[in-house]
Amino acid sequence: MDVIYVLIPIVLLFGFLVVIAFIWMAKKGFFEDLDGQGSRILMDDDDFPDAPKHPSTASEVSNEKTSQVSSSK
C-alpha cells in the first residue's frame, strides 16, 4: 500500500508533462492542418517534374542549379 504514495506523484507529474506538451504543440501549429497531410500523401509526385525524389538528389539538383547560374554569368 506504500507504493501508492510514490505512484500518485509520478502520475500527476506525467499528466502535467502531457498537458505542457499538448499546449506547446498547439502553439506550434501541429493541429492546424490535420487534413493536409492525409491528402498530400495521396498526391502523385510525378505532377512536378522538377521536384526531387530523394533528399540526396535534392542537394545534387541544387548544386547543378548553382553551377548553371554561375556558368551563365
Question: Which descriptors apply to this entry?
Answer:
single chain; 73 residues; mainly alpha; 0% strand; Cyt_oxidase_maturation_cbb3; transmembrane helix
Task: Report on the architecture of this protein.
There is one protein chain. This protein is an all-alpha fold. The chain has helices spanning about 5-30, 35-40, 55-70. It is elongated.
Estimated helix fraction: 55-70%
Flag low-confidence runs: none
Helices, by number, come to 3
The secondary structure category is: mainly alpha
The helix/strand series, from N terminus to C terminus, equals HHH
Shape summary: elongated
* Rg from alpha-carbon coordinates: 24 Å
Average pLDDT metric: 79
Strand content: under 5%
Q: Cα distance, first to last residue? A: 79 Å
Largest sheet: none
Q: What's the β-strand tally? A: 0
Pfam family, one: FixS
Region (Disordered): 45-73
Transmembrane segments: 6-26
Biased composition (Polar residues): 56-73
Short description:
InterPro entries: Cyt_oxidase_maturation_cbb3 (IPR004714). This protein is mainly α.
SSE topology sketch:
Layout (H helix, E strand, L loop, with lengths): L3 H25 L5 H7 L14 H18 L1
